[in-house]
Amino acid sequence: MVVMTTSEARKDLAKVVQQVREGEKVIINRHNKPVAAIIAIGEFRRFRAWEKQRSQDGADSVDRLEKLKAEISEVSQDIADAEAALSEEGRISLEDLMAELA
């Protein structure tokens, strides 16, 4: 990896481009802090593809979360219905039911 100032990069841009074509990565510093990176176009395209896939994965995750929320809502309603049925008067114990059916 090559590190240079903005002035050096401006002065030797053709050299910088050649270094990148040969596989080097170039970091540009301004006031001793990195402000830019120059990479080969193939690496940039791979980064963009990764970025796009990551975005799609995020959208898929949101869809899965929405489906889970709907399922949780259904289960919550089932639980509420079961609790309501258990609290109704006139219910019969398992033992009594078995005796009636025997």
Order of helix and strand elements from N to C terminus? EHHEEHH
Please mark out the parts with pLDDT under 50 across 5 or more consecutive residues, or reply none: none
- Total of DSSP H or I helical runs spanning 4+ residues: 4
Shape: rod-shaped
- Biggest sheet, spatial arrangement of strands: 1-2-3
SS class: alpha+beta
Domain count: the total is 2
Largest sheet: 3 strands, mixed
Strand content: 5-15%
If you compute it from the alpha carbons, what radius of gyration comes out, rounded to the nearest whole angstrom?
Answer: 33 Å
Kindly state the number of beta strands: 3
Average pLDDT number: 89
Q: Helicity range of the residues?
A: 55-70%
Report how far the terminal alpha carbons are from each other: 85 Å
Give an overview of the whole structure.
With 102 residues, this protein is α+β, with helices and mostly antiparallel strands. It folds into 2 domains: 2-41, YefM-like domain (YefM-like fold); 48-89. It has helices spanning 6-11, 13-21, 41-87, 94-101, and strands at 2-5, 26-30, 33-38. A 3-stranded mixed beta sheet has the order 1-2-3. The protein starts with a strand and ends with a helix. The relative contact order is 0.07.
Summarize the structure.
The protein is an alpha+beta fold and 102 residues long. It has helices spanning 6-11, 13-21, 41-87, 94-101, and strands spanning 2-5, 26-30, 33-38. A hairpin with a 2-residue loop joins strand 2 (26-30) and strand 3.
What attributes characterize this protein structure?
alpha+beta, 102 residues, YefM-like fold, 15% strand
